[in-house]
Amino acid sequence: MSKAGRRIACRFLACCVALLCWASTDSVPVFAAQTDLGGGLSLTHESNVTKDSTVPGCANPPCPEWTEQLFAGLAYEERSPELTARAQAQVERRHFVRNVFPDDTGFFFDGWGVWSISPRFFTWALQDIFRELNTSPDASATPATLDRTNTLSTGPEFRFRVNPNNTPVLGARYGQFRNLGNQSGSQAQGDSSRYTVYGQWLHQLSAASTLSPNAVATRIHFDDPTAQYTNVSREDFYFRYDFAQPDTRQTLDLGRTRVVQYGGQEYSGRLVRYMGQWPRTLQSAFRVLAVDQISDTYSDTILDQDFSISTLPLIREEGVAVPLGVSNFAVTDIYHSQRGEFGYWSQGELLGYSIQGNLRRVDYATLDQDYDEKRGRLSLFWLVSIQVQAYAYTQYLRRDFPSRNQQDTGREMAVGMVYKLGRTLSFTLEGGRTERQSSAPNLGFVDNRMVLVLGYSTGSLYLPRSRR
User: Fold this and answer.
1) For 3-457, CATH number?
2) Structure pTM?
3) Among 126, 329, 400, 461, which residue's CB has the most CB atoms within a 10 Å radius?
4) How far apart, in Å, are the Cα atoms of 55 and each of 59, 61, 100, 170?
5) What is the DSSP string of 290-321?
6) What is the dihedral of CA 395, 307, 319, 54, to 10 degrees?
7) pLDDT per position as a tens digit, 320-359
8) How far apart are CA 268 and CA 258, in angstroms?
9) Quick check: 448 and 433 in contact, CB under 8 A?
10) How crowded is residue 121: how many other Cβ atoms within 10 Å of its Cβ?
């Protein structure tokens, strides 16, 4: 394992140890925490494992491949007066039988927590994400194009209650983005560190609504010598209206963003964000999101807990299916991002479904990779019996690159079945197809796959499936 790989492994283990220590500390009520463990074995056959990538192990594409995978992980959730936290961690070992790609070990961690050191006055927040990100908007996700990244955000927040209706807030964050490259040892790009201070004045309009002016100042240092920037200063000024009830949430941000490159150009633009969530019944929910802002890879990876842009719940036991997510790429440029999303989720006793879609436009400041994106997904679930559950999903993606006059269209579909072998064991069988058409040469492909998974889980928080 390389030095960078050992470093990410050590940080991954440290996060898992900290997670278990948090769960076992005496200051946190035991009944408020839940930790589920799990793991499994999977066998996958793909008719075109390289898709549109060119790799030494595939001299005459398309190249079929058998992939054996061993994975283990845990899921943790805590909600108590002292700590609110949620995390998932997993390690995966992958063996390519025909050596199209070299064998590799992957890590996944997605967790956040808020520790109330002094309730209503002093809190500390931590969010850390290990994830593989694609390096280019026009490349399919394969081991040759996915970089291993780590995104960290942590810092304190202080609240000073002046009277029942007014509360000033001061806070700081240290952020870090590290790109460790891919398993083949490619050059990593985009490393950065950032220091943020922010302030807001919360004015309570009613028991359910607040209005606040917000000011955020960030200094970003790009450690990568090949990056488009070295030092960047960012300032956000906006007003926020927040309406929150136990079953309804609406948040609206209106303001401006100013980004200044030290000794270079200045970029400014509007900051508009809206998120609304409404439950239609006890078994269904509807969510809408609209964003118009200047952003970067780090900002799109870290989710502000006051403006959460989480996905809808997974259809129960959706096996190895991956939920619809916002496209994010490991690039070193800032960009103007406009996007709208909607999602509807319904879960009954026997049948369930979710519908999701988004539109997005990305305009990079310097890179010639601007694109428009349209994406949609439909997921279905059917409880055949207590032991047998079936699911299916289909997904559509269209991405246009105006500067190159290029259009890429992708479709993915799959059907699967989960068979329960008792309370902790499950067997999953899935068949699927991924296809892509492109106006650019050599970017189209068709990949048919079959997946077998033998999984183990001690509880409902952990779904035994690959996170890659």
Assistant:
1) 2.40.170
2) 0.82
3) 329
4) 8, 10, 8, 50
5) EEEEEE-HHHHHSPPGGG--PPPPPPTT-TTP
6) 60
7) 333 344 456 666 678 899 999 999 988 888 899 999 999 9
8) 4
9) yes
10) 12
Adjacent-strand bridge partners of 39: 72, 456
Q: Which residues contact 274 (CB under 8 A, 6 or more apart)?
A: 250, 251, 252, 253, 288, 289, 290, 291
Measured CA to CA, the distance from residue 154 to residue 410 in angstroms comes to 37
Task: Output the six-digit token pair for 289.
Answer: 């999101």
Number of residues that make up the chain: 468
DSSP string, 200-256: EEEEE-SSSEEEEEEEEEEEEEE--TTSS-SEEEEEEEEEEEEEEETTEEEEEEEEE
Show me where the domains of the chain are located: 3-457
CA–CA dist 40, 128 (Å, integer)? 24
pLDDT tens per residue across span 223-258? 766 666 678 899 999 999 999 887 788 999 999 999
Q: Of the spans 292-296, 349-353, 407-411, which averages the highest pLDDT?
A: 407-411
Question: How confident is residue 13, by pLDDT bands cut at 50, 70 and 90?
Answer: low
